[in-house]
């Protein structure tokens, strides 16, 4: 099976929303790095930029360690009356360079989403017809059930001399081989 087929048949990962985020910001001029926490929907100021987190999501802990956040960053210069967008998009904790903010003075990146882990959704049990519902795990079933290929299955018979002795085709094949070998 090719990797394209694998990715087409994989179950999509569920991402859960978290109420808080941990970010790190760097002032490149002073080399000051600050790690801070904020709630989703709040605006935080760092130097001359404003950071607003619109969403923070990550998959269940059993899937993989990843946090992704939709972040909007704008700059309000002291002498300018208008603000300008610096960044608006998704940032990923595992790969900050994938969608990096491009600013001369500041860098911002996601560390992790914070909050209680949501309860995993129960796995949907496959639906069974009436015949399947009657068979319990570990229960012996009829040995003549149809296999997926449509041929009837039965108990395994081990090869032995007793089984093959009554086989006419095998006897004929053995006689032919004996005659060819001159025995």
Structure in words:
The protein is an alpha+beta fold and 183 residues long. The chain has a domain at 13-114. 17% of the residues lie in helices and 33% in strands. It contains 4 helices and 8 strands; from the N terminus they run αββββββββααα. The chain has helices at 3-9, 130-134, 161-165, 168-181, and strands spanning 16-17, 20-27, 32-39, 43-46, 49-58, 68-76, 83-92, 106-114. Strands 1, 4, 5, 6 and 7 form a 5-stranded antiparallel beta sheet that branches. It has a 3-stranded antiparallel beta sheet with strand order 3-2-8, with no helix packed on it. The longest helix has 14 residues, at 168-181. The chain is elongated and about 110 Å long. It starts with a helix and ends with a helix. Mean pLDDT is 75; it is low at 135-166.
Features:
4 helices; single chain; three-stranded antiparallel beta sheet; 183 residues; five-stranded antiparallel beta sheet; alpha+beta
Write the layout of secondary structure elements.
Blueprint: H1 3-9, E1 16-17, E2 20-27, E3 32-39, E4 43-46, E5 49-58, E6 68-76, E7 83-92, E8 106-114, H2 130-134, H3 161-165, H4 168-181
Classify the helix fraction into a percent range.
Answer: 10-25%
Strand content: 25-35%
N/C terminus separation: 50 Å
Low-confidence runs (pLDDT<50, min 5 residues)?
A: 135-166
Element string (H = helix, E = strand): HEEEEEEEEHHH
Helix and strand composition category: alpha+beta
| SS summary, helix count | 4
**Mean of residue pLDDT values:** 75
Query: How would you characterize the largest beta sheet?
Result: 5 strands, antiparallel
Which outline best applies? Answer: elongated
Number of E-type strands:
8
Alpha-carbon Rg, integer: 33 Å
């Amino acid at each position: 099976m090719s990797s394209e087929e694998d990715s087409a048949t994989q179950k999509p990962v569920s991402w859960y929303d978290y109420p808080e985020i941990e970010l790190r910001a760097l002032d490149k001029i002073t080399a000051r790095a600050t790690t801070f926490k904020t709630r989703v929907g709040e605006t935080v100021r760092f130097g001359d930029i404003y950071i607003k987190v619109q969403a923070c999501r990550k998959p269940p802990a059993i899937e993989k360690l990843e946090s992704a956040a939709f972040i909007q960053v704008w700059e309000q210069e002291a002498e300018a009356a208008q603000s300008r967008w610096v960044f608006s998009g998704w940032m990923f904790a595992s790969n900050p360079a994938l969608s990096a903010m491009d600013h001369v003075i500041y860098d911002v990146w996601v560390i992790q989403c914070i909050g209680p882990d949501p309860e995993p959704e129960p796995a949907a049990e496959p639906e069974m017809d009436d015949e399947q519902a009657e068979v319990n795990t570990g229960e012996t079933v009829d040995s003549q059930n149809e296999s997926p290929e449509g041929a009837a299955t039965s108990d395994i018979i081990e090869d032995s001399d007793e089984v093959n002795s009554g086989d006419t085709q095998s006897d004929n094949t053995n006689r032919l081989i004996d005659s060819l070998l001159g025995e």
